[in-house]
Amino acid sequence: MAQIHAQSAFVTTQPVVINPFHQFTDSWRVDLCECCNDISQCCYAYWCFPCFVLALAGKIDEPCVSCFCLPNALGVYRMKVRATLRIKGDSCNDYCVVCCCPFCAGLQMRNELTQRGLR
Fold first, then answer.
1. 49, 42 in Cβ contact below 8 A?
2. How far, in Å, CA of 111 to CA of 35, rounded?
3. Which residue of 15, 23, 28, 118 has the fewest C-beta atoms within 10 A of its own C-beta?
4. What's the whole-model pTM score?
5. What are the residue boundaries of the structural domains of the chain, listed by start?
6. Distance between terminal CA atoms of the chain?
7. Which residues have C-beta within 8 Å of that of residue 33, sequence separation ≥ 6?
8. Distance between CA atoms of 84 and 36, rounded to whole angstroms?
9. Among residues 48, 27, 37, which one has the least CA distance to residue 114?
């Protein structure tokens, strides 16, 4: 008859649960005040901001209707860009930036996407 030897396994460390909300480690590569580095986009945003926001919505795969139907759509877009690119920050800061300077916030998002080679 065969003998069965049971080996004891001891747990020496507890498993660690990683919170995915704390893993945002990147920063904005384009500062908020670097909005006029690309003068053509700066003029486009200044002279036709609704068209600029509509184009930004397309770059981040949001339906074009969202920029007309969604209150403070630019704040939502900023949160989406930040979450997708794993950029540190929070929704309160996103909304404050968008409310204080929507022009700079929109250009920052567009320039960030361009610098990272995404659109």
1. no
2. 8
3. 15
4. 0.79
5. 35-115
6. 70
7. 104
8. 24
9. 37
**What CA–CA distance (Å, rounded) separates 105 from 89?**
14
SS in 3 state form for the chain? CCCCCCCCCCCCCCCCCCCHHHCCCECCCCCCCCCCCCHHHHHHHHHCHHHHHHHHHHHCCCCCCHHHHCCCHHHHHHHHHHHHCCECCCHHHHHHHHHHCHHHHHHHHHHHHHHCCCC
Q: What distance in Å separates the CA atoms of residue 2 and residue 66, rounded to the nearest whole number? A: 70
**Which single residue is written with the structure tokens 């184009």?**
55
pLDDT tens-digit map of 17-49: 676 666 778 899 999 988 788 899 999 999 999
**pLDDT tens sequence across 48-93:** 999 999 999 999 999 988 877 777 899 999 999 999 999 999 999 9
